[in-house]
Amino acid sequence: MAKKPSGASASEMATGNTSGFPLFFTAPKPLELVRHGKAGLLPTPDVSFAATTNSILINGVEFVEAAKHYPIVFTQTELPLPVAVVGLEQQNYFLDAKGHWQAESYIPAYVRKYPFIFMEVPESREFVLCIDESASQYHEKVGKAAQALYEGSEPSAMTRNALEFCTAFHNHYVITRQFCTALKAAGVLMPVRSDAKLFNGREIHLSGFQAIDEKKLNALSDEKIIDFHKKGWLPLIYFALMSSSNWKKLVDMAGERESTDRSLDRKGENRL
What we know:
Order of helices and strands: EEHEEHEEHEEEEEEHEEHHHHE
Shape: globular
Radius of gyration: 20 Å
Number of strands: 15
Structural class: alpha+beta
Number of domains: 1
Number of helices: 8
Strand content: 15-25%
Distance between the termini: 33 Å
Helix content: 25-40%
């Protein structure tokens, strides 16, 4: 299945795998009838694939909800991208022992669309809907509980919904790239690090990210502020700034995990 959304690159790697694939994906394959005609997915709340990351890519449209639960920062890449910080180490604090996301907490769209993703075909600049065949819910043959990827020779309703979701995600991603390009050009992003000390004295240091500097933001010209306002970017900036109150929440969550896991090092330097 191919789809050509508007915009250029669709790189969705905030932090990727050593394989070079986007985060969480290890065996993405283009969705096609010959290969996946009898395959399906088991419906499950298990998102344990997101357990060993501390940051997840989000789009600007998600800031209003993400800011209620996570610090929103930006990657230290050539083009900074916004991420929700979900842990101070290489762990996602929002997953329980069963691999379920913490109740009442916003789940980023990047997680919700797994195991589907758009990947670009360089020769044609088309974006092909792919599925991660390594996903635990993926089955080569549809069983009684699995939802089929195809119904006969046509994509199933689930597959069509996945295509629509990934299309919307990509379109919002293109807009988010424009926002981040403007932030970088305005010079308001500054490298920062988070240092935390738990109740038992263990120190955690998280670096490798950028945040919006309020002083530099306030020093922008009226013309630039008006431009940001007209483009609808000022609310995104304010949500990112307000989200910094969630760092304390992460420290508290780290302390709770510490009480049940005594195998961690006393000190550690971590990066997004």
